[in-house]
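Per-residue structure
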Amino acid sequence: MYLTRHAEIRAQQRGIPLKAIEILFEKGKRIRQKGGSTVVCFSKKQQADMEEQHKNIKHLSKTYLVVDGDRVLTAAFRYKKLKGLKWKIENLYLELW
C-alpha cells in the first residue's frame, strides 16, 4: 500500500489515522468505478465487527478509500450511502459465482 501525497494531506485534514487506512485497505470490500479507480469500504456486516474490534479508532466504519491498484488516492468519511453500491456489490457477487 502506497499513500499519495494527496491522500496523506486529506487523511490528516479529516483526522483519519494511518491505522484506519491500513485496516480498511486490507479488509474492506472493493467496488470498481468508472475510470479505473476502486472504492474500498466496509459492508454493513463488517461495519459492526470492525467497530467492535477496533474501539480506539473513531468512525472506522464510516471511512472509505479511493484506490488505484495499490495506491491510495484519497481517504474520506461517508455521510450518505455511496450511490449504486448495493447494486454493484450484488452484481459483483453474481459475477463471481
Observations:
- The helical segments are 5-14, 18-27, 44-53, 85-96.
- Residues 90-97 have pLDDT under 50 and may be disordered.
